[in-house]
Amino acid sequence: KAGVTQTPRYLIKTRGQQVTLSCSPISGHRSVSWYQQTPGQGLQFLFEYFSETQRNKGNFPGRFSGRQFSNSRSEMNVSTLELGDSALYLCASSLGGAEETQYFGPGTRLLVL
Amino acid sequence: AQSVTQLDSHVSVSEGTPVLLRCNYSSSYSPSLFWYVQHPNKGLQLLLKYTSAATLVKGINGFEAEFKKSETSFHLTKPSAHMSDAAEYFCVVSDQGGYGGSQGNLIFGKGTKLSVKP
User: Fold this and answer.
1) pLDDT per residue over B19-47, tens digit each?
2) CA nearest neighbour of A112 among A8, A19, A35
3) Rounded to an integer, what distance in angstroms lies between the CA atom of residue A26 and that of residue A105?
């Protein structure tokens, strides 16, 4: 099976712009979770989608949003970018049940100038 | 609430010597615990997973971890380090919410960078 794919892999934006990141899960996986990784804060959970519904959300401002399509692909949007949004954004997919293992994509590295 | 603490931010070993990466957890429920590895500029790869079936968990690339409830620990070990093991390792607990079920939220430790000297 193909792994989790994320596009684009690298992105440069300026403050105030918005950005959309895409994640395609492993075939058959219905849950997609998003994480932000920064040197200062480490890996932090953003949100999780299951069957097109947001099932759980971390402590991030409303500028961070997401959605999931019927084919389980997910997008994450960040509006009004700030310098502090520069990070590696990772998505992970799983079957979605309790104790299911999450499999991670390679990430999208976002640089905000 | 669940949490994990990785006791060392950096560990350095010589090739061929044992590796020990320490992790303590806090959980109100029987936890699901994981170790993930991240090589530079790469995503996270699952090394191993504990879900109460056995206290000694064997993972990929010769790594294993032992769940010790009395010590609330889940240390990662490998008998003999290889140069390719140099990476950052994350101890992770699955947030089980208020009802003991996974909510898709993994809680990560701060990470331990493993250096392997020739």
Assistant:
1) 999 999 998 777 889 999 999 878 899 99
2) A19
3) 10
Main-chain phi, psi angles of B62, to 5 degrees: 85, 5
* Regions in chain A scoring below 70 on pLDDT: 98-99
pLDDT of residue B54: 83
Which band of pLDDT confidence, cut at 50, 70 and 90, is reported for residue B97? low
Q: Which two tokens stand for residue A39?
A: 């040197």
Enumerate the residues of chain A whose CB falls inside 8 A of the CB of residue B111: 42-43
Chain A residue closest in CA terms to B90: A43
Among B1, B31, B19, B10, CA closest to B97: B1
SS3 of residue A86 by DSSP: coil
Provide the chain B residues 54-93 that lie in CB contact (below 8 A) with chain A.
90
Asked if A56 lies within 8 A of B106 by C-beta distance, the reply is no
User: Is residue B79 a contact partner of residue B86, using CB atoms and an 8 Å limit?
Assistant: no
B96 vs A contacts (CB less than 8 Å): 98
- The pLDDT value recorded for residue B32 is 86
Which residue, chain included where needed, has tokens 């590796």?
B19
